[in-house]
């Protein structure tokens, strides 16, 4: 378990400064790649690539299928910084550490954050392989006290009590829908509420029923803390979940649904190309 002291504003500035010395790009768009979706980072052109292990205070991703690189370059002609591999609290990292890269992105000049993730489908109208535009989230872990903004507030980023109303930008969500239609993906584009749970265990059927009752359409183990910190810093947020598996909630007793990491990664692999097309075209049209 990590017992380090949280980074100060000055520490975060020093990390941003370190990154600035390694690249001449000044990214305005940040991208976080979810499980199996790291391929998106590979479409960043003329990139400067920094291994997390070379960046001061950056943790290392410990999950199979998650890389650990910051990729800074151009996507569709726009300067981006892309996290190939993110950090999860289930790896033992405190929330301030999970979310520190988002603050570093803000200090680098990022104004829009695009988060992608792998999620289990709860909404019975979803199919494995669908993309879900996140319209809102339930931060179960944060509501239970493991929240990235607990502790002294960093006023330079945002207020003590920040609003999480309309956290996910509706205009960007609309743009993804339009792009999806234009590139032939409209049948697989859904929208809904993402619920973050701690993991690393997948949910019991009873837990899934609870999540369904409280309005979750999909469940995963990331994203909400990063979005909280992004909104605290005033960033515009777009969230896209890839439904990598349909959870057991809609299964018949003899369907024998067993969620597993291999299936999550496999679906990521199968849908990686479409995910890249969707995000790239969205970035291209973003204003
Ligand atoms: N549950 C939690 N997290 C996930 C799942 C799931 O079914 N699929 C991908 N990430």
Written overview of the protein:
It is a single chain. The chain is of the alpha/beta class and 287 residues long. It has one domain: Rossmann fold, CATH 3.40.50. It contains 8 helices and 9 strands. The protein has a 5-stranded mixed beta barrel with strand order 5-8-7-6-9. Strand 7, helix 6 and strand 8 form a beta-alpha-beta unit. The chain is globular. The chain starts with 8 loop residues before the first helix and ends with a helix. The model has no long low-confidence stretch (mean pLDDT 93). Bound molecules: hypoxanthine (HPA). The site of hypoxanthine has 13 residues, from strand 5, strand 8 and strand 9.
**Tally of structural domains:** 1
CATH class: Alpha Beta
Can you write the helix and strand succession as a string?
HEHEEEHEEHHEHEHEH
CATH architecture identity: 3-Layer(aba) Sandwich
How many distinct helices?
8
Q: What would you report as the Rg, rounded to the nearest angstrom?
A: 18 Å
How far the N terminus sits from the C terminus, by CA atoms, comes to: 42 Å
Strand content: 15-25%
Bound molecules: hypoxanthine
Quick gist of this model?
The protein is an alpha/beta fold and about 290 residues long.
What is the topological layout?
Blueprint: H1 9-22, E1 29-33, H2 39-42, E2 45-51, E3 69-75, E4 78-84, H3 95-108, E5 112-121, E6 131-139, H4 140-143, H5 170-182, E7 189-196, H6 205-213, E8 218-220, H7 224-232, E9 236-246, H8 261-285
Parallel strand pairs: 1-4, 1-5, 5-9, 6-7, 7-8
Antiparallel strand pairs: 2-3, 3-4, 5-8, 6-9
This protein binds hypoxanthine.
């Amino acid at each position: 378990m990590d017992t380090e002291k949280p980074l100060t504003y000055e520490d975060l500035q020093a990390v941003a400064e370190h990154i600035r010395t390694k690249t001449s790009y000044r990214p305005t768009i940040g991208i976080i790649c979810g499980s199996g979706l790291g391929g998106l980072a590979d479409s960043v052109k003329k990139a400067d690539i920094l291994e997390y292990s070379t960046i001061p205070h950056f943790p290392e991703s410990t999950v199979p299928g998650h890389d650990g690189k910051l990729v800074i370059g151009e996507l569709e002609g726009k300067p981006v910084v892309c996290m190939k591999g993110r950090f999860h609290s289930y790896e033992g990292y405190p929330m301030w550490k999970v979310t520190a890269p988002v603050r570093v992105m803000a200090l680098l000049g990022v104004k829009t954050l695009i988060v992608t993730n792998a999620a289990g489908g709860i909404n019975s109208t979803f199919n494995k392989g669908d993309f879900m535009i996140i319209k809102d989230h339930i931060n179960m872990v944060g509501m239970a006290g493991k929240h990235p903004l607990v502790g002294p507030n960093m006023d330079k980023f945002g207020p003590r009590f920040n609003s999480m109303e309309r956290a996910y930008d509706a205009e960007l969500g609309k743009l993804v829908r339009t792009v999806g239609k234009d590139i032939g993906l409209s049948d697989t584009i859904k929208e809904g509420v993402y619920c973050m749970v701690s993991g690393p265990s997948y949910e019991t059927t009873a837990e899934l029923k609870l999540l369904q009752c409280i309005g979750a359409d999909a469940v995963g183990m990331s994203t909400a803390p990063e979005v909280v910190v992004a909104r605290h810093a005033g960033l515009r947020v777009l969230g896209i979940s890839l439904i990598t598996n349909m959870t057991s909630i809609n299964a018949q007793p003899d369907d024998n649904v067993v969620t597993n990491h291999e299936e999550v990664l496999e679906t990521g692999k199968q849908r990686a190309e479409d995910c890249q097309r969707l995000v790239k075209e969205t970035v291209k049209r973003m204003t």
